Amino acid sequence: MPPARIDLVPAFRRRVRVFAYPRSGRVRQHSSQAGAGLIEFSIIAVPILLLGLGSIEVAHWLLTRQVVSLALLEAGRAGISTHARPESMAQAFEYALLPLFPATSGHSARQNQQLAFEQRKRDTASTPWKITVLSPSSAAFNDFADPQLRQAAYDRLPAINNNYQFEQDQRRRASGWLNGLGPESKASIYQANTLTLQLSYLHKPVLPGIKGLLRLLGNPHGGYSQRALAHGYLPMSREISLTMQSHPVRWPMPAGGHIVRPATLADSSQTAFVAKPCTGMWCLRQLPAGGGAPRPDPVADTPILGRVPHTEDPMVSLPHPAAAPSAPPGTTELAVTPDDPSCGLSLCCTPA
Predict the structure, then answer these.
(1) How crowded is residue 151: how many other Cβ atoms within 10 Å of its Cβ?
(2) Which residue from 240, 277, 292, 331 puts its CA 20 to 30 A from 124's CA?
(3) What average pLDDT does the structure give for the chain?
(4) How far apart are CA 229 and CA 237, in angstroms?
(5) Domain named TadE-like: which ranges (predicted)?
(6) Closest residue by Cα to residue 193 from 141, 150, 258, 261
């Protein structure tokens, strides 16, 4: 019987394989890397998650800011066409805010809006939004109120004449008012016919963590904005100026605190607010930045019914609009007198 042959190759290979890749070494290598992927994922996922949530909050804030700005514009448009009536401005503002409170299965958009406002009022013990009428100020009404406009339509309240502002400015310059500025308001007739609104709106963040950060910045015993921050609301502040298209009337402010006047302006004429110069295509007559005579009316040479021609010398007194020439024949039915409530809403007012 021949001797048995020993196959050394498989054994050698097995020895090499065992020597190069010992089983115990593989076990130790896997044990040292267990959980490393979870730690790496946590390090990367947390910043990405915070960045995504922050993007959602910023997008919601930008949307709210845009809607609030549009709502303030609608409130201003309602004010300039309704003699700056506070109720009209408040109604227009809340109606324009409805897109922020979509209707649900059980409530309409108006109901959701009122529920949200009531919740914010309970949390902050103040109004969820507030519009401050900066111009025309109380001092401006003292300077420019027209006694002829105290009509029953305005509840016999002081009103500023919105017609013939250039002629009014010239008469006041001729009477000794420096640059046509009122002695109390330090404003011109153009600025007195500018509606300036300042809005404070309480924005509710989407993420609870943002509310916690805002609470750290607020003071529950501070002012309006500080109290809002202390309860997790972010106050937004917006401002707008529009030229009046009707006679401004000093209406009493309604209850509720939504439309207010600055308390310091009602009692002190030294700190009276002066409206910023109006800019834009609707601002035809305004004072230059350095004072002096107002800019000429671009349509001064256009023949408009009832217009009084003006002179190049700003210190020359012009006749009262009552001395203006009468309207051409056949056009009187298109005009109204200044004491008519609709005067100021159109450009067809004849002299008194």
Answers:
(1) 15
(2) 240
(3) 76
(4) 13
(5) 35-77
(6) 141
Residues 98-155: pLDDT tens digits? 999 999 988 999 999 999 999 999 988 889 999 999 999 999 999 999 988 877 777 7
- With residue 280 as reference, give the H or E element that holds it: none
Could you tell me whether strands 259-260 and 129-135 are parallel, antiparallel, or unpaired per DSSP bridges? Answer: parallel
Q: In which residue are the tokens 């310091």 written? A: 264
Exposure string of 312-337, with b = 16+ CB inside 10 Å and e = fewer, is eeeeeebeebeebeebeeeeeeebbe
230 near 202, Cβ under 8 Å? no
* Residue 349: closest CA among 177, 89, 85, 148: 148
Structure tokens that stand for 18 in this block: 């065992």
Cβ(57)–Cβ(210) below 8 Å: yes
What is the secondary structure of 58-121 as a DSSP string? HHHHHHHHHHHHHHHHHHHHHHHHTTT-HHHHHHHHHHHTGGGS---SSS-HHHHHHHHHHHHH
What is the structure's pLDDT at 219?
Answer: 87
**CA–CA separation, 141 and 273 (whole Å):** 12
Q: How far apart are CA 285 and CA 9, in angstroms?
A: 106
How many CB atoms neighbour CB 173 within 10 A?
21
What's the pLDDT tens digit per position in 61-100? 999 999 999 999 999 999 999 999 999 999 999 999 999 9
Report the distance separating Cα 64 and Cα 314, nearest Å: 47
DSSP one-letter code for 244: -
CA distance to 42, 293, 310, 313, per residue, from 36 (Å): 10, 77, 85, 85
Domain boundaries, the chain: 41-260
Distance CA 132, CA 121 (A): 18
